[in-house]
């Protein structure tokens, strides 16, 4: 049982770049039953002085651990069962948010075994919003107070690949490094939350955004003039990361955020977390622990690229043959939840912290100021797209509903939860099928972007003439084929593209 004399340490020491806190989740009714009511004394929390003699630390020990192993579970603080998301937020996260507006980067990661409370902590519920929802609400409130504007991106990192979750096709995003060594995710969509007067309870709205608001305005980042080079993500052999990035900038009244022409351009949206959630849930093994840890890493602006701190440079192109499927995690003892909690310094990236372990799942929220990106973003040609949404399940899509910026209301943002759909067999099948389709399309496009003429000619539906067109297009434009619509550049109609993809998929079962 946790000791009650440990008081939370407010997160105010900015010289400490990483703060690691644990959170104890109580037993569920089912777990209590399986323990026959013997749930006491399974964990103990000891308060003591840190190595420097002044800071306070806690050491967490499990009853079945040896004394030597207990020493390893030292961290900055531990929240107990009765301490809610609001308290964790106000103690750990809120003090950092003003730093984001000063150009610093803040990353919050929940790490722990399946069922340990990561989602509860980061996402929360409508009634009890999690850290992400509370952080977004706080950012929006500060934006309003300080007359700034924000844009939000949502992407998922799976092994070496980054996928744009705001774009309904979940395209892979190129990871580039500019001349100053700052990491850029090329083409990553940005949604501009609308601050509603009279983005309405902000907390409520932020919570909905976090859980997958059904309508978004996305702005695609176009060409930048900055010099860039490609980088590759370090492999996270058994984990995945999903990230919400909020960039903050001063409003530029002279330049509208999107062109009027493009606001009626419609693409169909999908719940933010649907596919990722489903995949992670269905593919993870049944390991459980009662601890979720929240790691905060504070990266000062001069460090460079904190929204993806685990990036490593590679001279060659990113390997294209890694599939988007998630690895199976293994049955893990409770203590593994702590084994990755190494201090992160400027020299020690997040991937260093986890690469020797078998992470089960991480949920990751990154807030960063766009002030560090001014050089690049000043050249962005923003292209707004309005997204519609799925109303009943995954297959019934609402089409042709435009959503002009000035008509955004709370009603438009109401979310119909697809969580249950994603967790029932038909929902799982539907999501996996859609993931398969996405992977196939992405791999096909990658092939078109890199294959030789001979290889292209050998692909069904391409032939000599189109192979030449593809090569010409590749020479003419630095932009790779990013979606099937781009194939119109090589003289294929939408119908032909569809037919071609059917053949490609059909070949798999022939
Ligand atoms: N601090 C908490 N207080 C009360 N209930 C909690 C707490 N943390 C988690 N729970 C409950 O425990 C269950 C598992 O939590 P949650 O889904 O957040 O775990 P998770 O780590 O995200 O799991 P997974 O890895 O499968 O996604 C949920 O029913 C959640 O409501």
TrEMBL record:
Database matches in Gene3D superfamilies: AF1531-like domain (1.10.150.280), Kinesin motor domain (3.40.850.10)
Coiled coil: none
A Pfam family it matches: Kinesin
Superkingdom in the source lineage: Eukaryota
Domain Kinesin motor span(s) in chain numbering: 17-190
Region of interest (Disordered), residue spans: 244-264
Residues annotated as binding ATP: 112-119
Entry-linked PROSITE patterns: KINESIN_MOTOR_2
Keywords: ATP-binding, Microtubule, Motor protein, Nucleotide-binding
Compositionally biased spans, kind Polar residues: 244-256
CC annotations in GO: microtubule; microtubule associated complex
InterPro entries reported for this sequence: Kinesin-like_fam, Kinesin_motor_dom, Kinesin_motor_dom_sf, P-loop_NTPase, RuvA_2-like
GO molecular function: ATP binding; microtubule binding; microtubule motor activity
Gene Ontology biological-process entries: microtubule-based movement; mitotic spindle organization; spindle elongation
Family statement: Belongs to the TRAFAC class myosin-kinesin ATPase superfamily. Kinesin family. KIN-10 subfamily.
PANTHER family: CHROMOSOME-ASSOCIATED KINESIN KIF4A-RELATED, KINESIN-LIKE PROTEIN
Full protein name: ATP binding microtubule motor family protein
Top-level taxonomy: Eukaryota, Viridiplantae, Streptophyta, Embryophyta, Tracheophyta
